Amino acid sequence: MIKKSFKDRFLSREFIIYLITGVIVTLTNWIIYSFLITTWNGENWRLANFISIILSIVLAYILNRKFVFKSQANILPEILYFFVSRIVISTIFEHGIMELMINVLHFNPTIRIFKYDFQIIKIIGSVFVVIGNYLVGKFLVFSHLDKKNNYRK
């Protein structure tokens, strides 16, 4: 069995498709969040972040299952692993960074794109979330699949 090099892993079809779907999911997260924050005049950022994270996780599961990992496993255990891991990673990296920067350090720079304000710290948190989600998806959520694409016991 030949081990893949670091370069081969990151140029693989799976990883490239993951990056494309990751961009779609991340943009969905940012757009929903920015829409809600703008609609609520900057109030309730925590609720806006929670809603954007949950909706982006739903989209991410669909895209990862169908296009990235091409899973045909039983949905129930897979979706539980997926949602729990994504909520944990998003809470630690995205929400945690935002909480630290906004409430502890009082640092919240934004850039305006069209009529929406995008928070720089949400963008930074998202980078860590994408990396963490790939590693957890690859080595925890979808690694439990056997050759028939069913969960191993």
List the helices and strands and how they pair.
Layout: H1 6-10, H2 13-39, H3 45-68, H4 75-104, E1 110-113, E2 116-119, H5 120-141
Antiparallel strand pairs: 1-2
Helix pairs in contact: 2-3, 2-5, 3-4, 4-5
Average of per-residue pLDDT values = 83
Shape: globular
- Give the N-to-C terminal Cα separation: 24 Å
Structural class: mainly alpha
- Taking all Cα atoms into account, the compactness measure Rg is 17 Å
Strand order of the largest sheet: 1-2
Main pleated sheet: 2 strands, antiparallel
How would you explain this protein's 3D organization?
- By secondary structure, the chain is mainly alpha-helical.
- It has one domain (6-141).
- Helix content is 71%, strand content 5%.
- The protein is built from 5 helices and 2 strands, in the order ααααββα.
- The protein has helices spanning 6-10, 13-39, 45-68, 75-104, 120-141; strands at residues 110-113, 116-119.
- A two-stranded antiparallel ribbon has the order 1-2.
- The longest helix is centred in the middle third of the chain and has 30 residues, at 75-104.
- The protein is globular and about 50 Å long.
- The model has no long low-confidence stretch (mean pLDDT 83).
Notable traits:
single chain; 153 residues; mainly alpha; two-stranded antiparallel ribbon; 5 helices; 2 strands; 71% helix
Please provide a brief summary of the model.
The protein has 153 residues and is mainly alpha-helical.
